[in-house]
Amino acid sequence: MRFLRPHTWAEALGAKAEFPDALPLMGGTDVMVDVNFGRARPNALLDLTAIPELRTWAPDGDALRVGAGVTYARLVSELADRLPALAAASRTVGSPQIRNRGTAGGNLGSASPAGDAHPPLLAGGAEVELESVRGARRVAVEEFFAGPKRSVLEPDELIAGFRARPATGPQYFAKVGTRNAMVIAVCSFALALRPGEGVGTGIGSAGPTPLRAYAAEEFLAGELADRWEKRDALPGPVIGEFAELVAGAARPIDDVRGTADYRAHVLRVLARRTLTWAWADHCEGGAGCA
Amino acid sequence: MDVPSKGTAGGAQRTAARPPARTDVTVSVNGAVERIKVDNRASLLDVLRERLGLTGAKKGCDHGQCGACTVLLDGRRVNACLILAVTVDQAEVVTVEGLTDGTRLHPLQAAFIERDAFQCGYCTPGQLCSAVGMLAEAAKGRASAVTADLADDAPVLDEAEIRERMSGNLCRCGAYPNIVAAIGEVAG
Amino acid sequence: MTTPRVGERTGRIGDSTARPDGTPKVTGAFAFSSDLYLTGMLWGVTVRAPHPRAEIHGVDVGPALAVRGVAAALTAEDVPGRAVYGLDVPDQPVLARDTVRYQGEPVALVAADHPETARRAAAEVAVDYTVLEPLTDPRRALDDGSPQLHPGGNLVRHVPIRRGDPQPTAEVVVTGEYTVGMQDQAFLGPESGLAVPAADGGVDLYIATQWLHVDRDQVAAALGLAPELVRLHLSGVGGAFGAREDLSMQIHACLLALRTGRPVKMVYSREESFFGHVHRHPAILRYEHGATREGRLVYVKAEILLDGGAYASTSQAVAGNAATHAAGPYEVPNAHVDVYALYTNNPPCGAMRGFGAVQACFGYESQMDRLAAACGLDPAEIRIRNAMREGSAAITGQVLDFPAPVAELVRRVRDRPLPPQRSTDLRAMPGGVGGTTHGEDVVRGVGYGVSIKNVCFSEGFDDFATARVRLEVTGGEPVATVFTAACEVGQGLVTVQEQVVRTELGVDRVMIAPADTSVGGAGSSSASRQTYMTTGAVRAACAKVRDRLAGRDPASLGDEVIDATVEWRHRPTSPLDPVTGQGFAHVQYAFAAHRAVVDVDLGLGLVKVVELATAQDVGKAVNPLAVAGQIHGGSAQGLGLALMEEIQVRDGEIVNPSFTDYLIPTVLDMPPMSLDVLELADPNAPYGVRGVGEPPTISSTPAIVAAVRAATGRNLNRVPVRPEHITAEGLSVEAGR
User: Fold this and answer.
1) Is residue C174 part of a domain?
2) How close is the nearest chain B Cα to the Cα of A231, in Å?
3) Which of C41, A119, C240 is nearest to B120 (CA)?
């Protein structure tokens, strides 16, 4: 197995062009599991940890650009105010040790339907920045996932980072697991309110890919359109319908971690609760903190 | 008859069926600079245990779900089983063997003994390295998942905070109450 | 309780004493079996069957031998001695020859100069299987149409207990059927060992085990060697909990070492570990309890099926335990109990902390709560009304001739102040930092569990422990050295041995020699027995030394060495009557009570254990610090069974053999605990000690489930309780809002 360790982004793109089957490695917290278990026997590994620009984040226009190498620990400590749902999700990833190494960029690269970063990125309307020697492109997160552990990443492309607008309203992330730490989501849900604009959602571990609940977003955006300013209580049926539409957007299965029925039920509950919290935050005029 | 020793005596060279590619790595381990040729597939944990004879870090699960292999990499706690050894070139690694100050135990090591914060002891090297890293993180003001106020620079390491911050290290003997007490005493 | 200081070497019986192995354990110097190394050693790997039931038509190791670096590849044909092994019944092939009875059964072995080479070569071993339909439902094991998995049929043991009126009637009757899932010991240090061929044709095996001599006897039989040519040395044990009572790679490593003439090390991965040792028996329990309106037990009827899996392991003894403990720590005049341990093609099951008493306790404690409800009594009160005491007769007719403060234990946990109501802090919520609730739908519940557990080996087993104590003057100071084969597995046995010698001989410097088979057997570090037994043996050896000392100051011995060995036995027990199940089967019982307080998110079915209060009688706390550790640890493992731990088996195949999906409690799952340790000496036991390790494992499970039931109103007849068990009955509640 060849080991490639570029020191600049240009070198990295060049290496990926030359060795399209090279497996990119960031924190290694997913890749190494496959290597240790012999599930991945790549011909080459492309270590991206020596590229400084991947480890930075900065405002870029009205968005934040976050490099693929920013760890979960840093998302929690540095971006909790601007990307609260992502920070909340990052806090639930693996263990403190894993959060010191693992990155949202790597999470995208693995494209697991259970990736904790995905629902908040979906809800926040993030875009993934992909680049190759052929050029750069941006893909909306919901278009990035192609199937279980598959994405639209071309063989010569690398994930440079993602772009997301800082929260303009309350955001929540909620994750159900059967243990209080170090647990993969049985099911998770993220909600972002963008006052005056609309609503974002993200569903984890309840389908072949992370999902957005489009109908739920559309329905709620419509219901909220004339309520953003009024800040009055949301009628129960609105919350209930939103919850049903979220659950309806999922395509869960039975597996070792939970049943399809339970997952659909969880989504109903989490959609109801997160909307209740987020709307209460909005009515109080504060930004949500999960 | 030879009596087995602990760890490798000087690091044996081994050859796998198809010799995989190797890379030269220079790494500081517990203060000593090691120049070694590592198998590109090898984890830092395997290199520590099989090549450098540092068997303190333990293998419990092979995938970052138990914490027994926790070491400090450039001062931060990581699961050595999830670190590819070739990526630690020029880095600084501290294992449980490097926690003592010459002959004196690290305060956490002493507290673990006094509080009986282990039974079988298999998770202990990982617990200790994790606790050392955790105290450093807290000193730098890094918020845990439960820190109430994220802007608070110096989180108070009360029992709940210690539990949250140590949640990446399993102890099957269930010595958790004593582990929390031992760390609390040192964090004090 | 006083806190011992590092380096302090003065603890006597009753003192909280630091472990002598503490410093090596905190510095990384302690040599666990997986840490061992010898120049020139090979690595052994096991080829395992992927099918739960199959015929083997041939095993071709040729392709493996062709791999460069491979030194040996062995099959059943290469086992020189007895082809089968087993703790009670030798029914398990060292390597499967023509039949596979469970997924993961060893079929062949490979040794190579590098572990990766060995793994790759193992993948080259070609096995010709005909896959057969597995028998996976223990309820079908005795059906006429079911396959016979062993020559004697599928019944490992039936234990009946018949006491009192065969047709009892009662004013209040409650029935229930309960299920216990398959729990794994999940010690953190997977199986490992190093076999070293010796010049005398024998072999030295460095191994993490619970019972050196029984390992040795099984290894020697398989190798066709005299037992004295097989020398076992205990290496560091990374947890045991029953899983190291059976053999894993002991014979395999020795076979490879003797074939190659080189040291062979074997280390299981976590995944292999799930296939490499026995698990806790899953159980189906049907209970009927009859009582007076005042809640006094009139009768208990129970039928318990234990799924023993493919091989017998300790199923016979587990069945005996489930039967004799079937009514719990309660006085009941009439009992009709049938326990069946059965062969299936599921993973083999055997010893795990609690050993048959765990399954029964979930059944009888669930019943006691139902009975309390039916009688309109408080759950603690019904337990107190029926509590065993000294002089009570068990359902086996055995009269308890030692303190049995069951009612007092229940009162102690009941009377503890309840923890405060939950705060608004996320981390106090069910679901924790998953952020799933801010308090909505969270309800609190309180539940009780009380356990009874036999200590030491039972049913007439010749249970003994050997200790040799040597007293001499070294460097002008008297030094006592203790030699035993008793296994330190984390419980603190080495500390206890030092304490005994200091107490008996008044000598501060005590060395504990590494445990090996050069001295007589010590029995297993299991059944909560090793402190009882080895304390008894070391104490008796010290008495012998003291006799020879004849009042002299040990410091005045000069060149004289006093060396005494004692084989020590507890008072004998007797077998159960095969028809009535009556008999003096257990030398001692131990008791613990738990009160669990839980918060449950009704909407999501997530549980947060808020507090566990425990009261336990330990007879005499030899080392109070270690006693507390045992109670913490046992309670944690019981919590795991209550809420998360289960090996999920589908059609005979384990679907979650990893720490990603076999979840054991983290520090965040373990609640604060309050302990009440009673010391009512057992007059029959050395220093009055009572086994400590198992009772808290047994009672914490039903206490937690009872608390969840109290919070939710759900029936919850199965452990572990999964979130969907709680929400399934509650779906309509949530949807109706």
Assistant:
1) no
2) 26
3) C240
Strands (DSSP E) found in chain A: 2-4, 23-25, 44-47, 57-60, 63-67, 127-132, 135-140, 145-147, 150-151, 158-164, 171-176, 187-194, 198-204
C351 and C341 in contact (C-beta within 8 Å)? no
Sign of the CA dihedral with C388 first, then C623, C20, and C30 last? positive
Same domain assignment for residues C98 and C223: yes
C60 has pLDDT over 50: yes
Dihedral, CA of residue C664, residue C666, residue C669 and residue C675, to nearest 10: 100
Chain C interface, best mutation among B70, B104, B120, B146, by max C CB count within 10 A: B120
pLDDT at B12 over 80: no
Check whether residue C272 and residue C287 sit in a common domain. Answer: no
Return all residues near C218 (Cβ < 8 A) that are at least 6 apart.
C85, C86, C90, C247, C250, C251
Co-location of C509 and C415 in the same domain: no
The three-point CA angle C625-C631-C632 to 5° equals: 90
| Contact between chains at B96 and C26 (C-beta distance less than 8 A) | yes
Neighbouring-strand partners of residue C288: C175, C301
* Domain residue limits at C106: 34-132+190-237+244-276
Residue range C611-664, pLDDT digits in tens: 999 999 999 999 999 999 999 999 999 999 999 999 999 999 999 999 999 999
Q: Shortest CB distance from B41 goes to which of A35, A49, A73? A: A35
Q: Which chains touch B (3 or more CB pairs under 8 A)?
A: A, C
Chain C contact for B132 (CB, 8 A cutoff): no
Residue-range domain boundaries for chain B: 22-97, 107-187
* Residue C419 neighbours by CB distance under 10 Å: 16
What's the whole-model pTM score?
A: 0.96
Asked whether the beta carbons of B6 and B55 are under 8 A apart, the reply is yes
Residues C664-697: tens digit of each pLDDT: 999 999 999 999 999 999 999 999 999 999 999 9
User: Is C149 within the bounds of a domain?
Assistant: no
| B22-97: CATH number | 3.10.20.30
Shortest distance, CA C427 to any CA of chain A (angstroms): 9
Mean pLDDT, residues C367-376 taken together: 98
Say whether A265 and C648 touch across the interface (CB within 8 A). no
Residue C70 in tokens? 């491979």
Angle separating helix axes B176-187 and C624-643, nearest 10 degrees: 120
Write the residue in B57, B66, B95 that is nearest to C188 by C-beta: B66
Read off the CATH number of the domain in which C270 is found: 3.90.1170.50
Q: Do residues C95 and C207 both lie within one domain?
A: yes
CATH code of C614's domain:
3.30.365.10
pLDDT digits (tens, 9 = 90+) for C473-504: 999 999 999 999 999 999 999 999 999 999 99
Q: Are residues C288 and C389 in the same domain?
A: yes
The residue whose two tokens read 């006083």 is C2
Structure tokens at B7: 């760890």
Q: How many whole angstroms separate alpha carbon C352 and alpha carbon C358?
A: 9
Report CB contact under 8 Å: C432, A181.
yes
Report the pLDDT value the prediction gives residue A71, as an integer from 0 to 100: 97
* Contact B26/A at CB under 8 A: no
Q: Does B169 touch chain A (CB under 8 A)?
A: yes
Please report residues of A whose CB lies closer than 8 A to that of C722. 178, 258
**What is the per-residue pLDDT across C238-291, written as a single tens digit (0 to 9) for each?**
999 999 999 999 999 999 999 999 999 999 999 999 999 999 999 999 999 999
Residue C364 backbone dihedrals phi, psi, to 5 degrees? -70, -30
**Is some CB atom of chain C closer than 8 A to the CB atom of A289?**
no
| Domain B107-187, architecture per CATH | Orthogonal Bundle (1.10)
Least Cα separation, residue A107 to chain B (angstroms): 15
Whether residue C578 has a cis bond before it, omega within 30° of 0: no
Q: Cα-atom radius of gyration of chain B, to the nearest Å?
A: 17
